[in-house]
Structures are given as C-alpha cells and as structure tokens.
What does this fold into?
Amino acid sequence: MIPGVEAEGDPTDFEYLCEDGSRRPLDGPACSWAQRPWTGYISNSEAVKGEQQFHNLQDRLEKFFENGLHAENKEAAAHLLINENAVYHKKAEAVDPQQYLEKAGYKDVIERDGSALRKMKMCVQSDIEFQKCNSMRRAAYSRDIRPEMECLKEENCIAAVAECKADMVAIQADHYKPARESKLQPVVYEAYAENDIYVVVIDPALTRDDQNKKPVYYNANDERQRKAVAYLNLMRGSPDCNAQPGEEQSLLIANVKDLGEHKNKQLLCPNGERKPVSEWQLCNFEINLPNAVFIRDSMTHVEQETLKHLFISLSDKFGKSGKLSDVFQLFGSYTPNDNNVLFSNDAVEFITELKNKTPNEELYQRLGC
It folds into this structure.
C-alpha cells in the first residue's frame, strides 16, 4: 500500500473495517475512524458567490500556495501554514465552516478531552484580566493545549490558591513575598528578549566621586528603570529607591537595545568597574523580578509538571515568536488601552528557570521599594 514498498502479505486476505461495521477491500478507498478538519482557507460568502467567482478564487489560492512552497522565507510560509508536506486540494463547491467541522467529527475527535486531569483554575482579580484569561482559555482549548483551563475571579487570588479555590495565579514582583508566605511557589516565569535588559551608562569624564553622588537620569514611569536605580543607589551606599531623576545624562539608565546611541560612553557595573558598552552582559542592572505563575507547593509532581507544560505550550504557540500569535497574543497589549494585563507587554516567552541571574528575591526585598 506504500509506493515502492512490497507488501509482506496478500492484500486480498485483508479488508478495511469501517465504523459502521461494513468492510472494504484494501485496493479501494479507506475507512476513516477518526477524521480531522484539515487546514483550509476561509472566505466571505460574496467572494464565492457564483461558480466562476468560486473557481477564480481557487485558482488564485493555488498560485499563492505554490509560491509559498517555493518561497525563500520559510518562516513566513510556515506562519501562513504552508509547508512542503501539505498539498492543495480544490473542493467541488464551497463548504460552510460549521458543516465542514461537523462532517470531520471535530467535536468527537479534536474537542474530546482525553486527559485524566481536572480543569485547572486560574485566579484573576479585575474584569479585564478575566476577559483575557477567558480569551487565553478558548485559544488554548481550540489548539488542543491541555489540561483545560477555567478562569475564576476573586478579590484575593493568593488566598484563593492557598485555600484550593484556584490552582494558579499570575504574580507581580511586589507580591512574591506574600505568595511565598502563603506556601505558593513559581512554576514558570516571564522572559524578555536577550538584549532587553537595563544597564547604567556613564560619561567617561565623570569622576569617581561624582559617580557615587550624581543623580541618575531615568524614566520614573518605568518600573524596571526605577528598580535599576534603586539597585545602583544600594551599590553606592545610599539605598534610596524613590530618588528623583537627574537632569543631566552623564549618568543614566538605558536599555541594551538603545546602546547604539551611547557608543562614546561606558557602562558602570554593579562592582563599580567601568566597561565598554559592548560588554553589557557583565554590567547587568536588571533587578526587577518578572511576573510569574504561582501554584500551591503542595501540588503533586505530576500536577506541577502538567502546569509547566500548559504554560510552555501557551508560550510556544501564542508568545512573541509563536506561529499563532495572530490568533491570540499572550504578551503585548490586550486592547489598545489595556497594557500589561496578567503578563508584561515586553515579555516574549515563558521559561521554567530564570535566565538572568542578577535578579533574586532576597536582593529585591533588600531594596525596600
């Protein structure tokens, strides 16, 4: 039955057993016990109104598909769900999406939850968080990410998880400590892009004395920059985490992505040394803890690993580099007016261990901010 491969037995001695109990010979069409809805193109009804319009659109899509197969930008083609293992197949007539899914047994096969685990409840506090949580739940379920999620709104989510009313909650840096005190632990963390960290830029002409006294130029509305300044002040012996921004830019907080604007300056490292801007990995002042998903520390090992898998799968599909980020954005603005909902706009993925070793919970608490 496979081209180029000789069968070991006689095909006439075997038959296909069909779902309705009937049988078919092996040299005829096969019986499908578990059909699936294959990737297809959806159009509005006006574009396929009439046989000629329908066939014209099919011809255009076929050319589009063939061009995608031979495109140099394989990543862009993959994002459009075009790959060399797929084939383009024309239908005799347009099919209603709901009828297509029903005929393919979507509810019986794809939507069946074979997991033995119960639904995992995520606790949120605000209405907009509840909306995003449900959007995430629907996107995850439709893409076969398991276990299934459920969203729960409570005033105190740390208490809700601790009391088993919920299973997980997204925690910001300033709530790590009360979460730990309630016997919760992180299961995944947000991660930024490798070059998305904050450093201290210094004018080479600045004296050592001024280096320890000079007000720092920074954006007071940026939480990560405020924490970087607090860390610098701690290193300088003046643990003031609410210092007003300076007016001069001879000592400033900058993101590594913007170091091209400071080629003629140097970096000040936490140990007091100065380095060229090209050695930013050695002068990390990113001390702010990322948002993390916390769970009860009493959860079984299987439950913990299952939740890790859940959020890593969400990240792989809906993170900044995910192929389905156009379906649902895990990170970034939830609406034009709603930023940092559940997770940071600037995050790109979830990780199970912090890559940036500079921030730690003990040091963060010492800042006293």
About this structure: The radius of gyration is 28 Å. Residues 312 and 350 are 6 Å apart (CA to CA). The chain has three domains: 1-112, 120-188+297-341, 198-282. The chain has a mean pLDDT of 87.
